[in-house]
Amino acid sequence: MRILLAPMEGLLDHTLRDVLTRVGGVDLCVSEFIRVTDQLLPNRVFTRIVPELRQGGRTAAGTPVRAQLLGSDPACLADNAARLAALGPAGIDLNFGCPAPTVNRHRGGAVLLDEPQLVHAIVAAVRRAVPASMPVSAKMRLGHRDETLMLDNAHAIASAGASELVVHGRTKLHGYRPPAYWDRIARIREAVAIPVVANGEVWTADDALRCLAESGCDALMLGRGIVADPGLAWAVRAALGGPAAEGAAVPGWEVLPPLLLHFWQRTATHVAPRHRSGRLKQWLNLLRRRFPQAQALFDALRTVNDPQQIDVLLSAPDFLRGLDHQAQLVPLVLDGDVVAVHGAAEAALG
Ligand SMILES: Cc1cc2nc3c(=O)[nH]c(=O)nc-3n(C[C@H](O)[C@H](O)[C@H](O)COP(=O)(O)O)c2cc1C
């Protein structure tokens, strides 16, 4: 069983990839999208978004990172893919799922699912442009407004030479509202000969077991769920009776304090001081779904934005001793879309 770490632009960047792959249980990461319009991007754009390219296409923990491109012009995507390939990622992934209005207005992401022929042309052009040894994969939603073209798109991707297809079991119109339709992923898996990876709404090991059963896939991509619970990949492996089940405990809160500090310190290298606290709170906002200690820390930091004050707080010996606070309803909004809602009921369920 393979577990992939999802691309999440604005949430799961190289810093969080570093942290989450240190916790482990993940076989492969896909980077957040690199947007291609009509230009050949300079190498520094690729290495800024995917700095792992400077270390053999792997995170510090050694987990391979596939770089994701987003765009609609096959020739320009192919040129950029060739340049990117020379930097040595663990493959190139193509985005056919992004619902962001700014991206869709420019005919990128999920709206491409209205045009399976264009999807085919993009995958084929990129496949031709990069060395045969380099995997070219794709990630799609079930469709733009509905799922009528889902099999056409999956066929388009597979017949253009993609080595793997990740399916997020929702249309663009579904946004991020539960549920994810894992049974539709099964229909796609049955229709194409390439491996299909199931994605969407896996927050617990139980969800993972149901998703695997309903989709019939043997690979999962974890997004918000593993950001909320960095031990989730190990929990899934344990639930499946894999190596983690044999003695090794599933990592819980106890592994997180040093990683939170590491994450915080790493943000100093590439995030403007005024945005640093926001990045930390964004992660804590998901972590508090699972950990009361993260809720306590979130509460303690709610009104604190000064990096120096946060340095002091995070370095205090007992900052991690959390109280089991009742959570309030807090939507996590990105690009005008509610991507997660954290509520008191969910907190009570853990
Ligand atoms: C904040 C955010 C940013 C995302 N950015 C990307 C992206 O750059 N590329 C992509 O293919 N999918 C992106 N996605 C979609 C996720 O990869 C994933 O398909 C989706 O979150 C469903 O999985 P989950 O329920 O496990 O989170 C993003 C999702 C979120 C919430």
Largest sheet: 8 strands, parallel, barrel
The level-1 CATH class of the largest domain:
Alpha Beta
Radius of gyration: 20 Å
Counted beta strands: 10
- Our count of helices gives 15
SSE run? EHEHEHEHHEHEHEHEHHHHHHEEH
- Large-scale geometry: globular
CATH-derived topology of the largest domain: TIM Barrel
**Average residue pLDDT:** 90
Question: Any overview of this molecule?
Answer:
By secondary structure, the protein is α/β, with parallel strands linked by helices. It has two domains: 246 residues, Alpha-Beta Barrel (TIM Barrel); 97 residues, no CATH class. 41% of the residues lie in helices and 17% in strands. The chain has 15 helices and ten strands. An eight-stranded parallel β-barrel has the order 1-2-3-4-5-6-7-8, surrounded by six helices. A two-stranded antiparallel sheet has the order 9-10. The longest helix is centred in the last third of the chain and has 15 residues. The structure holds flavin mononucleotide. Flavin mononucleotide binds next to strand 2 and helix 9. The site of flavin mononucleotide has 24 residues, from strand 2 and helix 9.
What key phrases describe this protein's structure?
binds flavin mononucleotide, TIM Barrel, 15 helices, 350 residues, globular, 41% helix, alpha/beta, disordered C terminus, two-stranded antiparallel sheet
